[in-house]
Amino acid sequence: MSNTHVISHPGGGQPAPDFIVREDHHPENGTLLGFWIYLMSDCLIFACLFAVYGVQGRAYAGGPSGADLFELPLVALNTAMLLLSSITYGFAMLKMQQNKLSGTVGWLIVTGLFGLAFLGLELFEFSHLIHIGAGPQRSAFLSSFFTLVGTHGLHVTFGIIWLVTLLFQLKRHGLIPENRRRLMCLSMFWHFLDVVWIGVFTFVYLMGVLQ
């Protein structure tokens, strides 16, 4: 049976038919494909920022270097917060697949708390660096550092805002197909941020201290 209906207009003459498609006209998995394309564009942004840092990473202008500024224990703790948030988000997705709304919401809240802890430690680091005179205006090295790490922090901030919005949608509508799709997109985004941060931790912090 056709899902297309024809509606004729009243009046004289032969009316032009209006076609209404009742079935879902969105392509299957179109949202996920579009989101993958977005993530690839984000990869290009971070690739440019990594390239800039690679060029300017030793332009200290007579100021402090990464070995003078970076505190690896603090950065390692911050890294653990973000990696743990990725694990807890995985638990939330498992609960979603089991159709357990309360478990999904609970693990998402834990994920958000880990994300907030990550942001808090990063803001503390930025505040400390600025306080001791190592702000982004001090040298090209610090300008590229603040830009790269700050851009990642902004992405985490937007991810937390997205997560909170999803919590309200889950409370109101439950695990409907639309919310499942949104959870899947946020999962891809969150894990992408983890991968980028591993690059930041290795390329910026570890290599900076080793220099």
UniProtKB/TrEMBL annotation:
Matches recorded under InterPro entries: Cyt_c/ubiquinol_Oxase_su3, Cyt_c_oxidase-like_su3, Cyt_c_oxidase_su3-like_sf, Cyt_c_oxidase_su3_a-hlx, Cyt_c_ubiqinol_oxidase_su3, Ubiquinol_oxase_su3_dom
Transmembrane regions listed in the UniProt entry: 32-55, 75-94, 101-121, 141-168, 189-210
Stretches the record annotates as Disordered: 1-20
Domain of life: Bacteria
One CC-aspect GO term: plasma membrane
One Pfam family here: COX3
Keywords annotated in UniProt: Cell membrane, Electron transport, Membrane, Oxidoreductase, Transmembrane, Transmembrane helix, Transport
GO BP, one annotated term: aerobic electron transport chain
Compartment(s) where it occurs, according to its Swiss-Prot or TrEMBL record: Cell membrane
CDD domains: Ubiquinol_oxidase_III
Topology relative to the membrane: Multi-pass membrane protein
Segments forming domain Heme-copper oxidase subunit III family profile: 28-209
Signal sequence interval, chain numbering: none
GO molecular function: cytochrome bo3 ubiquinol oxidase activity; cytochrome-c oxidase activity
Family to which the UniProt record says this protein belongs: Belongs to the cytochrome c oxidase subunit 3 family.
Function as written in the Swiss-Prot or TrEMBL entry: Cytochrome bo(3) ubiquinol terminal oxidase is the component of the aerobic respiratory chain of E.coli that predominates when cells are grown at high aeration. Has proton pump activity across the membrane in addition to electron transfer, pumping 2 protons/electron.
UniProt subunit comment: Heterooctamer of two A chains, two B chains, two C chains and two D chains.
Designated name of the protein: Cytochrome bo(3) ubiquinol oxidase subunit 3
Organism: Allopusillimonas soli
